[in-house]
Amino acid sequence: MRNALFKGVVVGSIALLASLSLVPSEVINPPTERRLESIVELNDDNWSKEVSNSNIPVVVNFYLADGSSGPCTLMKPIYLELSKVYSGKNIKFAKFSIDASAQNFELVPAFGFYSGGKCVGSIYGVVSYGELEFVMQEVFHLRKY
Question: To pair with 102 at 20 to 30 A between CA atoms, which of 20, 43, 44, 77?
Fold first, then answer.
């Protein structure tokens, strides 16, 4: 019951954000052909290859994968949509699961922006699609596509 109530709150919150034009309508009703392969799953073993040694900018979503974080759940479709919009534009999108029991990581979701293997910016918490995109464009010095 509690899990169903939580999912209802999350879905309702995303719908509210869409009605306020804080997220694109595609986030609420994504086309069925969308695939998740565009977001690289990071871990300790592939961090160097995918982030530190990447020759293109990387956006990393740090999140709690166990479903215990409402904010992480809210940001998942927004991050997915941003990765789709910028697909093929020389920006890598990745995600790194934080183990809530092993880490003292209170500011989730967190988004780190990496260039040349170094963190050049970050943003924390629930933000709109536009805010996340704006920060990404600013730290990577991008023009809007």
Answer: 77
The stretch 80-103 carries a mean pLDDT of 87
Q: Could you state, in order of their start, the residue ranges of all structural domains in the chain? A: 2-140
To 10 degrees, the CA torsion angle through 46, 136, 128, 20? -140
* Count, residues in the chain: 145
Amino acid at 110: A
For residues 102 and 130, the model is more confident at: 130
39's tokens: 């977001």
Amino acid at 97: S
Fold of 2-140: Glutaredoxin (3.40.30)
Q: How many Cα atoms within 13 Å fall on the side-chain side of residue 44?
A: 2
**How far, in Å, are 62, 106, 145 from residue 82 at the CA level?**
15, 24, 12
Helix locations, the chain, DSSP H: 2-19, 25-28, 47, 70-85, 129-140
For the entire predicted model, the pTM comes to 0.72
| Amino acid of residue 101 | S
Write down the pLDDT at residue 145. 52
Torsion of CA 74, 125, 112, 17, to 10 degrees: 40
C-alpha 81 chain-centroid distance: 9
